[in-house]
Amino acid sequence: MKDSQEMTRKIRRLELRTKRLVESSFAGQYQSVFKGQGMNFEEVRPYAAGDEIRSIDWNVSARTGDLHIKKFKEEREVTVMILLDVSASGNFGSVEQSKREVAAEVAAVLALSALYNNDKVGLLLFSDQIELFLPPKKGRLHHLRLLREMFYFQPQGRKTNIHGALDYLNRVMHRKAIVFVISDFLDEHDFSRPLNVTSKRHDLIALPMIDPAEEILPDVGVITLEDPETGAQIEVNTASKKLREEYQEESRRRTSKLLHLFGARRIDMVPLRTTEDYLPTLRSFFASRERRKTR
After folding, report:
1. Which domain holds residue 112?
2. With helix as H, strand as E and coil as C, how does 5-57 read?
3. Chain centre distance of CA 210
4. What's the CATH code of the domain at 222?
5. Closest CA to 30 of 119, 146, 104
6. Which of 147, 148, 182, 145 is nearest to 162 (CA)?
7. From the centroid of its chain, how far is CA 158?
8. Are residues 70 and 175 in the same domain?
């Protein structure tokens, strides 16, 4: 009972913090970038000078003997799906916060941005299996549930299967959505096929989580490296310049592969580093996306 009360207090503090971040950083910006998915029919009314000729409803006009037009209004409501990687590699962190902790904060900010604009938000937690699926809904109670799962969910799986996560999304989500995939993308399997399907059906945005120690291996002598997803260990001498160069080159190859994978499908990719404040990066992305939409 005590643990439950403490978790509730932490979630409330998280809610207040993310709300302040959203109100100070994303108010209006999110809404201008992620608009509705189409136009809804509202009514038929008599034609007036200046109305668009293409809007004339010829059936009603023929029946009444007077010109009438169809009036539409923009569908404002957006559906947002957040795919959050909770595999064991996310627990790694060489700085103050782990990749998973930062990823959860980013997911919370995006979710509250959507709910703040009266949009539906859903959550899919995945590892090498589907850990949890919360269908898109609105409301404060739903948001509190999202926060609790984002920060405190204990996964059963340890590895990563992005292919399975995208496949599941494509099966359960039939309406077009804004889909944020937050992951370190340390997945050895090819997930290009379901990625093709998802990018055609939805507005897909990839947010890779990066820790600096995954890009550059520091010279700290002999250390033991462990794969958090398999538990495999290897002893390496980081004093070796050749080893550090090979390590850095492998990191570049992974990044280049992701850039090609997403770029070829015109999927936005927004890298987020555990050593940097993610808010300016997200603001910059929103701003660049808004500029593209107004061209």
Report:
1. 2-21+80-294
2. HHHHHHHHHHHHHHHHHHHHHCCCHHHHHCCCCEEEEEEEEECCCCCCHHHEC
3. 15
4. 3.40.50.410
5. 119
6. 182
7. 20
8. no
Cβ–Cβ contacts within 10 Å for residue 165, how many?
28
Instruction: Give Cα 193 distance to the centre of its chain.
Output: 19
Listing DSSP states for 239-285 in one string gives T-HHHHHHHHHHHHHHHHHHHHHHHTTT-EE--EETTS-HHHHHHHH
Report if pTM > 0.85: no
pLDDT 10s digit of each residue in the chain, 295 long?
A: 456 677 777 777 777 777 776 776 565 566 667 755 554 455 777 877 767 777 788 887 888 888 877 765 555 578 999 999 999 999 998 888 999 999 999 999 899 888 878 889 999 999 999 999 999 999 889 988 999 999 999 999 999 999 999 999 999 999 899 999 999 999 989 999 999 999 999 999 999 999 999 999 888 889 888 888 888 999 989 999 999 999 999 999 999 999 999 999 999 999 999 999 998 898 888 888 877 766 6
Q: Are residues 63 and 167 in the same domain?
A: no
Tell me whether residue 26 is in a domain: no
In a domain, 96, yes or no: yes
Which pair of tokens denotes residue 248?
Answer: 């850095």
Neighbours of 242 (CB within 10 A): 7
